[in-house]
Amino acid sequence: MKIEVDYDLCENHAQCVFAAPDAFRMNASDELEFDAEVDDSLREDVQSAADACPVQAIRITG
Ligand code: SF4
């Protein structure tokens, strides 16, 4: 599955990291990093991350 994050919207609050730590992480500068393509087994976690994002910056595209 494929993930996109709109960095113009993202405010680095990290709710997505708590919901799907295998796909999203904060780097040393406290900025979001994520895997653009992850295994389908993470779909539920990534959907939870998208639902939890307060600015709806996460889109599942595939
Ligand atoms: S939850 Fe949304 S705003 Fe927060 S870090 Fe993740 S993508 Fe960015």
From TrEMBL:
Chain segments annotated as transmembrane: none
GO MF annotation terms: 3 iron, 4 sulfur cluster binding; electron transfer activity; iron ion binding
Keywords: 3Fe-4S, Electron transport, Iron, Iron-sulfur, Metal-binding, Transport
Cofactor: [3Fe-4S] cluster
Pfam family, one: Fer4_15
Stored InterPro entries: 3Fe4S_ferredoxin, Fe-S_cluster_ET
Record function comment: Ferredoxins are iron-sulfur proteins that transfer electrons in a wide variety of metabolic reactions.
Entry protein name: Ferredoxin
Native species: Actinomadura physcomitrii
